[in-house]
Design goal:
- This protein has 205 residues and is α/β, with parallel strands linked by helices.
- It has helices spanning 43-51, 72-80, 92-95, 108-116, 145-158, 182-200, and strands spanning 3-4, 7-8, 62-64, 85-91, 120-126, 163-168.
- The chain has a four-stranded parallel β-sheet. Strands 1-2 form a two-stranded antiparallel sheet.
- Helix 5 packs parallel to helix 6 (182-200).
- The longest helix is centred in the last third of the chain and has 19 residues, at 182-200.
- It is globular.
- 28% of the residues are buried.
Length: 205
């Protein structure tokens, strides 16, 4: 998960979580690789070296996990770095591959593992399944906004006591991830999702 060629990837995305059940976090650069001289070190050695500089850690340091396997080793390495929160991809097309099918098998174990390891969760909801938009592609909105709202309601209800923060879509300002207009994102994606999440409610407020 953390090794990419001879570079040690600490965080593909540094995510500061504020206003989601935690305190305010100041912005500070997060290192993205260890010194090149350590390229022969083991993964754990590299992580330990990065973790030594603990004096400047944030109250909350987060990592973009892209829904890892959820095994204990990943969480151990994250905790070694001082990471206490992670972002996960809760892709709609993976969770609801057909209108009547819900696939929780990949997500439940990861959520349970993260919780048992005291990793706080930021989950990004997005990407439309083919059945909901006439197979136009995952970056296109659903034909019927009610399908999107139902997905948000079902997913958030299931994980309402586990996920601390919900992100709505991934980088909608990037055309590879969102094929609609800015107004469509606000009116057909963000606002419906926000209202639905508030209706469901979570233990984090």
């Amino acid at each position: 998960m953390l090794q990419r060629s001879h570079e040690w990837v600490v965080g593909e995305l540094a995510l500061a979580i504020a206003g989601c059940g935690g305190g305010e976090v100041e912005s500070e650069a997060v290192p993205t690789r260890a010194d090149e001289s350590s390229s022969e070190a083991t993964t754990d050695d590299a992580l330990e070296a990065l973790a030594d500089n603990s004096a400047n850690r944030h109250p909350i340091v987060a990592m973009n996990a892209h829904l890892p396997r959820g095994d204990a080793l990943d969480w151990k390495r994250m905790r070694t770095l001082g990471v206490s929160a992670a972002r996960f991809d809760f892709n709609w097309y993976s969770i609801q591959p057909t209108r009547t099918t819900w696939n929780w098998e990949r997500f439940d174990p990861v959520v349970a593992s993260a919780r048992s390891s005291n990793i706080r969760m930021f989950a990004t909801l997005g990407y439309t399944p083919g059945w909901a938009n006439a197979n136009r592609g995952i970056a296109y909105q659903a034909t019927d906004t009610n399908d999107w709202k139902n997905a948000v309601r079902t997913i958030v209800t299931r994980y309402r006591n586990d996920v601390e923060c919900w992100g709505i879509w991934n980088e909608p300002d990037f055309s590879a991830f969102w094929k609609g207009t800015r107004d469509e994102y606000f009116t057909r994606i963000l606002r419906p999702a926000l209202r639905t999440i508030r209706e469901v409610g979570t233990q984090y407020g």
